Amino acid sequence: MSESNSPVKSPCIAVCCLDGSDVCIGCYRSANEIIEWFSAGDDRKREILDTVNERRAGN
After folding, report:
1. Distance (Å, whole) CA 10 – CA 4
2. Residue 5 DSSP code
3. Can you name the residues that pair with 23 across neighbouring β-strands?
């Protein structure tokens, strides 16, 4: 199974606390991205993970 066809795992690490910018200090998703995650398709989840990786790299 290729990466683009495999299920996308949540970046949640059970450290759920939003900072002043509404970004979780554990998984680096915004509050809106966390809410959206549950109904998002795998392509959108990968987009969110790309954004998460950019945020994490900036810290």
Report:
1. 15
2. G
3. 30
Q: Does residue 1 contact residue 36 with C-beta atoms inside 8 Å?
A: no
- How sure is the predictor about 4, in pLDDT bands with cuts at 50, 70 and 90? low
The residue extents of the domains of the chain are: 32-59
- State whether the Cα torsion 15-18-19-22 is positive or negative: positive
Q: What is the pLDDT of residues 20-46, one digit of tens each?
A: 999 999 999 999 999 999 999 999 999
Q: What is the pLDDT of residue 5?
A: 72
* Apex 13 CA angle, 9 and 19, nearest 5: 115
